[in-house]
Amino acid sequence: MEKTFTLIQVSDDSKTDYASYLLKGEANFWWKSTRALEGEGPISWTRFTELFLEKYFPDCLQNQLEVEILELKQDKKSVSEYEAKFTELARLEPGYVSTEIQKARRFQQGLKPEIRSGVVALQLKTYISVVQAALVIESDQKLAVKEKGDKKRKSDSITDKADQEESSQKFLR
């Protein structure tokens, strides 16, 4: 909403009126009763947002999100999946990731150890550079696993061929 207000240049005095006009259903009923309790006169945008967040984003939910972002780990997710969940939580609870360095470090802490060690060594300072490095390392690790599997299959194939030749020679004797 703030983005829209900035775009169409709504004054602070009018923001509450516009926002309350857009409320529907239960939120509209909530605002009518809250408005009556707040008394006569205009309600500032700051006060409106405080009241709105108090109602629809209570402390217990904020605490839950804080815990979730602090405990978020990549686990079995791909870097892309982990990054999407991290972004969602960071948007909802920006307190722990309010600076670029905090965001980068917090994301880095949740990475799988084998990816995190590579990223940490690079000493990156921005979130996007940490994400990109993690993606590159993950991709390289997948490629290494594939190559190792290909070598093993090739080695097994050579061993199988040698065994077949040996069996053939025994049979011919």
> Which regions contain 5 or more consecutive residues with pLDDT less than 50?
none
The secondary structure category is mainly alpha
- The helix content, as a percent range, equals over 70%
Q: Summarize the main sheet.
A: none
Strand content: under 5%
Mind explaining what this structure looks like?
There is one protein chain. This protein has 173 residues and is mostly helical. The protein has 2 domains: 2-56, no CATH class; 60-172, Non-ribosomal Peptide Synthetase Peptidyl Carrier Protein, Chain A (Orthogonal Bundle). The chain contains 9 helices and no strands. Helix 5 (59-71) packs antiparallel against helix 6 (79-92) and helix 7 packs parallel to helix 9 (127-172). The mean pLDDT is 88.
